[in-house]
Amino acid sequence: MTVTEIPLYEQVRRSLEGAIASGEYGPGDKLPGESTLATTMGVNRLTVRRAIEELARAGRVQSRQGSGTYVAPTVTRLPVSQSLSTDSLVSGITEQLAEHGHSYQDVLIKASRVNQPQANIEFGLPPGPLWRVDNALVVDREAWMWSSSWLPLELIKDPRKHWNPVSGLYGMLLQGRGELIPLWRSFSAEAATAIDASVLRVKAGTPLIVRDGLTADEDGNPILRVTRRARMDRVSYVLRY
């Protein structure tokens, strides 16, 4: 094979990709079986199988055991555009979701009390017991990101009793704290863990974008440490200073 020759499986993949892109096969449609595709395209079944595997890796199709191969749903990607202000912190994501016609819920996964002095030091928070709050942003019935937050116990009411699926944790915090000041934010890429896979309904090892941050009250005192873990096929971040 010369450098310029295209492998048969790649030719088949491109043909199927083109059929999906043109709308011949739409989201949720079942592709013809391997035998049918092999006959139609003049190749063997192993070549078709390899092409479908490549499409599955790219997220274009989904193989369902015992049922066949289906075109994957259209990917919706939301650029999360945030300025460093309280209004943006609280409503930036939800407003953009509404503008794009999405329904959403801020779902409480778990809230627990933490009394580990080392955690306060590690997270840059004042001494004393903390709340750890885990919650997920569910968009159109699909979890796009989930967060773990740590904050002093006295700052909010018990989230297990007072959670609001619209305003979430920031809404609770604003009731008694006023202005919130972002101190720093960091971004990294990580592979999904077993916990991520369970919450976000992705495979372990799927790439995620992870955002860590520390937020202060209006006097500059650190009060909130947050880690957000988001699906990279659903969310991107744009910071506006």
From TrEMBL:
A Gene Ontology molecular function term of the record: DNA binding
Assigned keywords, A-Z: DNA-binding, Transcription, Transcription regulation
Keyword presence, Transcription: yes
PROSITE patterns: HTH_GNTR
Domain (HTH gntR-type) ranges: 6-74
Pfam families: GntR (PF00392), UTRA (PF07702)
Coiled-coil ranges (or none): none
GO-annotated biological processes: negative regulation of DNA-templated transcription
InterPro entries xrefs: Bact_HTH_transcr_reg, Chorismate_lyase_/UTRA_dom_sf, Tscrpt_reg_HTH_GntR, UTRA, WH-like_DNA-bd_sf, WH_DNA-bd_sf
Transmembrane parts of this sequence: none
Entry protein name: Unannotated protein
Species, as recorded: freshwater metagenome
